[in-house]
Amino acid sequence: MTDNLTVTVLGTGIMGAAMARNLVRAGHTVRVWNRTRAKAEPLAADGARVAGTPAEAVEGADVVLTMLHDGPAALDVLREAAPALRSGTAWVQSGTAGTEALGDLADFARAHGLVFFDAPVLGTRQPAEAGQLLVLAAGPAGHRAAVTPVFDAIGSRTVWTGEDGAAGSATRLKLVANSWVVAVTAATGETLALAKALGVDPSDFFGAIDGGPLDMGYLRAKSRLILEDRLTPAQFAVATAAKDARLIVRAGEEHGVRLDVAAASAERLERAAAQGHAHEDMAAAYFASFDEAEGPSA
Question: Is the pTM higher than 0.85?
């Protein structure tokens, strides 16, 4: 297979749209589809072809990349695309699907002769737009050359975790990493909420931890989004983070581990979404510390 591929991107939200643009910039022929077509249309100006159906999008594709809400959503869309899928096509599943869904996805791939890659990514809007995602991938070594140009276009590095995408080693690593992201974001929001309640200037808190072991770039980045009211456009939306938090909790339960922080974080995110912050950055979970009627500002 040549390095110039025909790549289909199914799902053009925050991440999928950025990935599609970087694939076009890398010289690949890119087709895109999204359930809400208006979200895909702007990619035409970047050189992508906007398809009306999943089947139209995948016809003749070398690689199909799915960046959809969860595993069931990816499976539903691939079923719609099934009549046009070509045996031997590589399917790169890059959404956070959770461990429960991988068996069904792999079974579908096997039934349709697709080469299945479990390949979630670490990163948010900014690294996605810059082509600097970290790709966590599992798939057969003999077929990796088919997807390496895709991973090179969307990411700065690829970490291979295994040869069997169905085993879920990449997804498991993604859930572990996201459990840290969710926990730190929740703690950031609660810290700023407590500071507000106690009349503590956040700058005093940051001054106290400056340069020490408690200081961290992610804390400061998420805090700035809250304090400077820059929660849109979202780097990683509240609703998506809530879904991921629930996947993390379920994965823990499946393996006999109780994840109290992840469960509480999921509740905070869902509460913030119910308050109207679903499409804001996940840092907006900050607002879940307050009664909705108060409408607090940082």
Answer: yes
